[in-house]
Design brief:
single chain, Jelly Rolls, 26% strand, globular
């Protein structure tokens, strides 16, 4: 169950309530510890076991407007689903959180997509938004970090901005087990160049934008 895996909220409260309250008030939340060490190690071992050729250079946009732009980002990705046993515990947690956020915030979160994000030494992702208001189905972004023994000199921090300012409101080190959750349309963000390989799971809760002419989500 979700509450068994998550740290308790302030004053011993429900952690789904803590996440929902943070999204409703601040729009984002940084959790220092989410999953057990066993779950994290299982995911990390699977990540590291993949051959490099199974990753593809990440791009910008989706479907017909998808293109690679190495002036913007130089990470590599591998899409995940439930056919991979190592990440099933992750998807179980994600699904319970989806249901909890829908009950509390009425977000209409319909599904979730995610991938491993691999940043080789020197890789980066410049300031961007995961979704633009009224133009995309991504609503909530999650990032789970999988970097054992990360040190400040390794760099690769996530810088989180608000829409009005040019100075970051949060500088988040990608330490093993840390998770960041934020509203996709509201927070521009970037990944600083990394000084050693960097590993994470990046994911997005989506709303259903299906119509009689198009089925969502596209694959």
């Amino acid at each position: 169950m979700l509450n068994a895996n998550l740290p308790s909220g302030p004053y011993g409260g429900d952690t789904i309530d803590e996440i929902a309250t943070a999204l409703e008030t601040s729009g984002y939340l940084v959790l220092p510890s989410v999953f057990s060490e066993d779950v994290l190690q299982s995911i990390f071992i699977h990540f590291k076991s993949l051959d490099e050729e199974r990753f593809r250079t990440a791009g910008i946009g989706r479907e017909d407007v998808y293109h690679v732009n190495q002036f913007v980002r130089t990470d590599e990705i591998f899409w995940l689903d439930r056919t991979i046993p190592a990440v099933n515990a992750y998807f179980d947690w994600i699904e319970e959180l989806r249901l909890g956020l829908n009950r509390r915030l009425f977000l209409g979160l319909f599904d979730y997509e995610c991938h491993y994000a691999y940043y080789p030494t020197g890789a980066f992702y410049k300031k961007h938004l995961d979704a633009f208001k009224g133009e995309a189905s991504r609503v909530v972004t999650t990032v789970l970090y999988l970097n054992p023994n990360w040190l400040p000199q390794d760099s690769g921090e996530l810088l989180l901005y608000n829409m009005e300012g040019d100075l970051p409101i949060e500088r988040i080190e990608p330490q093993f087990g840390k998770m960041v959750i934020f509203l996709s349309e509201d927070f521009p963000h970037e990944v600083l160049p990394v000084n050693k390989p960097r590993y994470s799971i990046a994911g997005w809760y989506r709303v259903n934008t299906s119509s009689t002419l198009a089925v969502d989500p596209p694959q």
